[in-house]
């Protein structure tokens, strides 16, 4: 897509400043939504609702006015702003900002004589990792007495220790994506469905269509003049607004978009949920990918039901994250391992070029179009990995276990990013998490109490991985082709967005917690989420386990099935099932969203069969409107509810 490159670098000072200001607005909006309004979750997906909403308002209203004045932002500048918004959104709430502070304080505040955390967990916590002072921690959850001031000093030391590690992790993520960008974008040509909406929003008039004499180009972008888009926009916007009004005025009937049907003697069930954003995005992906996502989910539901009524189960405690059934979690982890390693094997020629350029400076290999030079990216990956491993060892995790954990975490981050780039599902996690996989694989008795506690603190950034910076960075690099030649300035934009997202969210969470009491804010981020790692850790300390043989067997089966699917996919053109479906098909989120993916797959199949590619292309704006309408509805009602003092009005979840 050519977005008018004549003058038009996106890396202008005004674009960086605007992106920075809008990133701060994202932080404020997301934190107030979940903690004060108790409304929609706006930054927990790979396509964040808050980022889309703010970008929509900026492009529809602000930039249209500026275009009328002749000083509008060009498409490249708008894409830089959008990239900064999605990168910032990845760390604002679930990614980091809402998790880190409560988790650092939880092992002290939630310690009771019954759970024995004071004797089981606290002795193994390094003092520099956590805030000090029982009163400081109590007030964080319960609020300050009237007239007291926020104890900023209690948090400076632990955050000063944590933030270098967090920044190193995020920079390593970006370096990995820089290394793989050419392979994914130019060689494999992944479609990156999540970039389609912003690319269409910023698209300008085609130069091949001259305007009549004396007539100026409309200030409103072509995307916003498409009636079919507004039709799609209106459906989720109206339905969401009706449900929001029902929360304000109960005499207004609500519209239910989800139905649960129990099956297999009510031991499991099937969700029929209509998610408009997922429908819109699933319409953009390849038919075989969409087919595989809903097919493997239904297959896993049937298998799980058979297991339930026949008594086949695993009693292993793997924590609350990932697939709820440990058997399916291990199957998925084996599949993930093969999926990522096979992808790296397919990229081996490109990776050889990268490392040859990095270490030998081979002039035949051109990396001038990359955001970072290959040498910078490779050195950043190596030094970042060394630093993170050493940091994890200092927290009490043995050296070789730190290596295993870090390898597993990066493998899961990379696999999820690849799946989102190809599968387009915005709400996605991994089948398990790295810390649980390590403990299960080698046994908690071999990790030790200090190692288990150290792994518990990794939940801050590697547990509820519905959002993390690697994915938006990959999508930003996909869109970078339209931002101008000086792509290396994009790294500064991403880094600026991360710094604003991290520091602004930490500052705001501390203010809200000490003002209102964290326990009165979002119940997941201040109660359920912070308890989870230490409940799991305490159980593993009290009940030591060895390596889980069943888990290794299931991983082997998952790896073998994935290898078979990839073999069939690459050998036979007629094979209809994509390996992505098996990798994430059993996830809870796919169970919630399979029906929306199925509907999009069915509609796209029928349209392509009876209307052809032209009709499909003409209907795409309608499905993009479904995405934009839902996210806009969520954003508008957060603003309305804040000013009307309404709480608990969740217009959008997934």
User: Helicity level, as a percent range?
Assistant: 55-70%
Report, as a whole number of angstroms, the end-to-end distance: 29 Å
Low-confidence stretches: 1-7
The order of strands across the largest sheet is 1-2
Could you describe the largest sheet, including whether it forms a barrel? Answer: 2 strands, antiparallel
State the helix count. Answer: 26
Provide key terms for this protein:
654 residues; mainly alpha; two-stranded antiparallel sheet; 2 strands
Can you give a write-up of this model?
The protein is mainly alpha-helical. It has one domain (13-209, 227-644). The chain has helices spanning 13-37, 49-68, 75-89, 100-109, 117-120, 134-142, 152-187, 196-202, 227-248, 276-282, 287-310, 326-346, 348-360, 374-394, 399-423, 434-442, 444-447, 449-457, 459-462, 470-479, 488-516, 523-542, 549-571, 579-584, 588-610, 612-644, and strands at residues 258-263, 268-273. A two-stranded antiparallel ribbon has the order 1-2. Strand 1 (258-263) and strand 2 (268-273) form a beta hairpin. Helix 1 crosses helix 26 (612-644). The longest helix is centred in the N-terminal third of the chain and has 36 residues, at 152-187. The two termini are 29 Å apart.
